Amino acid sequence: MSVLDNWEQWKDFLGDRLNQAQEQGLSQNVINDLAYQIGDYLAKQVEPKNEQERVLADLWSVANEQEQHAIANLMVKLVQNNETN
């Protein structure tokens, strides 16, 4: 089973990667840029595995680059907020 198959597992996976990036001293700007690059890759190369991923893919497909950066930044915030709750 892939981490992409389950939304909660995907968020946990992203949270773990976020923690690793922060522990390695990456700035928030670098983290947000990496999130954008990952989102762009997923949107172009990976078929959504659940409803949440389908919504993100649909939003990504109609967004301009600035809006895609906003989506990626919101995913980072979502993962960060999950860790504090």
Automatic annotation (TrEMBL):
Which InterPro entries would you find in this protein's record? DUF3243, Uncharacterised_YmfJ, YmfJ/YflH_sf
Lineage, top-rank taxon, reads Bacteria
Q: Quote the Pfam families the UniProt record gives.
A: DUF3243
Its recorded name reads DUF3243 domain-containing protein
**Species of origin:** Fervidibacillus halotolerans
Top-level taxonomy: Bacteria, Bacillati, Bacillota, Bacilli, Bacillales
